[in-house]
Amino acid sequence: MKKKKHEDESLPEQAGEVVRITQQEAECVIRFVDALRIQFYEGREADFCEPCCGCSHVHECKPDTWYENTRKLSRIAGVSINLALPTRRHK
């Protein structure tokens, strides 16, 4: 019998598998990417709270929601993100 995985731990098992994310999850990740891009361009330190300031979902989120959303997409993409390191590793 195959052990059932939690939804947030699932990985695509074959090329071309459709993986679904919600509009809110996608918006969260894009807000962070864009905010960090602008912060870098302006020479500022990364501020992980800034993207949440203008978000309409901020009251529904937990403090680590952005990380969980990013981690889910990184697993889908096969890109390992370690917040303690300034580099990334590809699988």
Molecular structure report:
With 91 residues, this protein is mainly alpha-helical. It has one domain (21-85). The chain has 3 helices and 2 strands; from the N terminus they run αααββ. It has a two-stranded antiparallel ribbon. The radius of gyration is 15 Å and the shape is globular.
Task: Give the tally of β-strands.
Answer: 2
Q: Termini separation (Å)?
A: 28 Å
Order of helices and strands: HHHEE
Q: Assign the structural class, choosing from mainly alpha, mainly beta, alpha/beta, alpha+beta, or little secondary structure.
A: mainly alpha
Shape: globular
Q: Report the average pLDDT across residues.
A: 76
Specify the number of helices: 3
| C-alpha Rg (nearest Å) | 15 Å
The strand order across the widest sheet is: 1-2
- Outline the low-pLDDT stretches: 1-13
Architecture blueprint of SSEs:
Blueprint: H1 23-41, H2 50-53, H3 65-77, E1 79-81, E2 88-90
Antiparallel strand pairs: 1-2
Helix pairs in contact: 1-3
Quick rundown:
This protein has 91 residues and is mainly alpha-helical. The protein contains 3 helices and 2 strands, in the order αααββ.
List keywords for this structure.
40% helix; 3 helices; mainly alpha; 2 strands; single chain; 91 residues
